[in-house]
Amino acid sequence: MFGIAQAQSISQAVIGNSGTTLSNASTELNFTLGEPVVGNVSNATSVGQGFWNGAIAEITLSNDDFELINSTSVYPNPVIDRITITFEEMNNQTFELKLSDINGKQLLDESFENTMGRKEIDLSAFSGGIYFLRISNQGSQSSKTIKLIKQ
């Protein structure tokens, strides 16, 4: 005799410990957090769905975002005593320089207006090691971080 077996049927469900719906005039985001993170984004032109890790943000980049990266240079690196920072076509803009050591301790915090297209910094008082120089353009709020090796 043959017996009839029935397979178990499990309905689809998401068990989450948190979730919400975020919306504005043109977009709606529904999501739950748990294991896994599952969500759905829809607006008038597209629908997306999938597994996500972290928050979703819409960022629009422009050429201004890359101006500081492309228009500044720091030399020499490795440095013995002094570094020179050059700024191409960025005159009369205010910049902030922050130098920190490998442990994050801030060693220099200086603001200046770029009138000459270059800035020199004396590092002769610092011991040899790795430092991070953050150059920020206060007008465009863009920044660039450079790893410096002090000999």
Automatic annotation (TrEMBL):
This is Secretion system C-terminal sorting domain-containing protein. NCBIfam families: Por_Secre_tail (TIGR04183). Keywords: Signal. Residues 74-145 form the Secretion system C-terminal sorting domain. Pfam families: Por_Secre_tail (PF18962). InterPro entries: Secre_tail.
